[in-house]
Amino acid sequence: MNKNNPMKWNKQLFLSVICVMLEGLLSGCNFMVMYYIFQSLWKQQMVMGKIMEITGSIAVIFLIRLIIYSFGYVQGQVGGASVSKHIRLFLGDKLRKIPLSRFQKSMTGEYINVATENVNSYEQILTHKMGDIIKNLTLTVMLIIFIATLYIPSALILLAAELLFIPAIAISFRAVKKYGIKKNAICAENVSSMVEYITGIQTFRAYGIGGTKNKSVTSSMKKFSDISFIYELKIIPDGVVYSILIGCTLPLEIMVAGDSWMSGRLETTPFVIICLLPLYLTKLLGTIFVDMTSYKNLMIAKQKINAVVEIPEEIQTNQVFAPQKHDIIFEHVDFSYEKGETICRDMNIRIEDQKLTAIVGDSGSGKSTVLNLISKYYDPDAGDIRIGGCSIQNMGTEQVLSQISTVDQDVFLFDDTIQNNIRYARVQATNEEIEKACREANCDEFIRKMPQGYDTMAGENGNQLSGGERQRLSIARAILKDAPILLLDEATANLDVENELAVKQAIVNLLKKKKTVVIIAHTMSIVKNSDKILVIADGKVKEEGKHEELLRINGKYAAMWKAEQQL
Ligand SMILES: Nc1ncnc2c1ncn2[C@@H]1O[C@H](COP(=O)(O)OP(=O)(O)OP(=O)(O)O)[C@@H](O)[C@H]1O
């Protein structure tokens, strides 16, 4: 278990457990009062004074119970909410430290499920289930002890019913473990497909595969309803058999205690109580059985949270990463996202300090992967990457990223004002600095035309903005961050002419700054003027040099150049 265990109980939760135990004991006291009433009636000793005494006792028990219950309930709720808040904050921070390689599609649903559904379930254990079980168990034990003081054989029969509880709940736990874990995994799958469905709703609608026609969502929903059905099917019979067995205690008690009463070994009042209490105890044991079964199911949530807590984190270090120079070296780098699918194979790259290096290559050849490795979003399987002569292997991702500005094709915008969206690049930036960056990024004009200018909301993930506008905001962020390394995944392919020109002008402004720039260029006009061009194919740098040098080699680059000239 992680030393910063976020599921650790707090003082309030311990207090709430003590309160529910006390409340359980007090509710058992009611049965003793009942015994006293029956006894007085039977012996015809009930007088007004006694009635007042009984009424007073019941009122006092009720009042104390109410106070303890209210206090315990508040402690449980506050304690549970505090633990779940702690878990959520912990998970939020943890997700930031988990290597990106663990964010595969299936894992997104898993993480969302853990941070929402599983944390809710765990909170439910703390605030409700745990208290109910402890209270009912305390009451059961107390009642059996009470009956033992009246007539031992009756207590033994009830104890046998309690012992039967052990194999019954063991069977139920086994079923919960098997099918509950499956149900939870399918639930995570469900969340993944719903996230995919909602984020891709526009595409689904465009192709007429929304709603019930969406096979991925419908089959995932069906799987969930099937597993829920199987889950209940496997657990209900066990519960029914157990209920029947404990139900048999009532006639058994009447028979055994009745025989003793007939022979005068047992008084009438204990006999009446012994006939009545099993009715209540049977119901109580049934409730404990149901609660413990759902407790076990909810505990799967705890295991799921733990599994995320235990995921190894990226290197966290406070070591400052501020190299004097910013040349980037790849030395014999091997890398694959998935085992067996090598993307970089013994790759060697030399990117000069404060020079413009362009990467070209076929789609899927690994150009963006090179940028991902420089940013330390992923670690190489072998080899070394150095920035300014310093290996990034033992650096934290955040330290490495502090030296890098990135402009890529997937511009993520928060549902916040345009100004704040740009400010994420440098939190301390003044409004004037933001506006200056926007002018250089060619976006000041369109921002000012928006209804509230810089205070206009970008909409969820920037859906109020066009592709070109989003690209320019991303360039403004890079300008504002002003990091010594600039990684640029140029994407002007899907823009209209006006936007393409605006983005290109913004990129030209960005490139004027003295920085180490690595650009994945899709248009040869930018590539042509680079200090160095790297041509990537088969996981390696196949050609490198300036434009003219590569044309002279007459290899892959020359072929790409000629192909573009013919368009
Ligand atoms: N997160 C990922 N998980 C698994 N495989 C990935 C991941 N990202 C990329 N790949 C795969 O790695 C290979 C290289 O991808 P990469 O994005 O680096 O290529 P690229 O040259 O930048 O392509 P493009 O020019 O089309 O953007 C591709 O086969 C791609 O499918």
Structure description:
- There is one protein chain.
- The longest helix is centred in the N-terminal third of the chain and has 50 residues, at 48-97.
- The chain has a domain at 11-309: ABC transporter type 1, transmembrane domain (ABC transporter transmembrane region fold).
- The strands form 2 sheets. It has a 6-stranded mixed beta sheet with strand order 6-7-8-3-9-10, sandwiched between helices. A 4-stranded antiparallel beta sheet has the order 2-1-4-5, covered by helices on one side.
- By secondary structure, it is of the alpha/beta class.
- The protein has 18 helices and 10 strands.
- Strand 9 and strand 10 (540-545) form a beta hairpin.
- The mean pLDDT is 87.
- Bound molecules: adenosine-5'-triphosphate (ATP).
- Keywords: ATP-binding, Membrane, Nucleotide-binding, Transmembrane, Transmembrane helix.
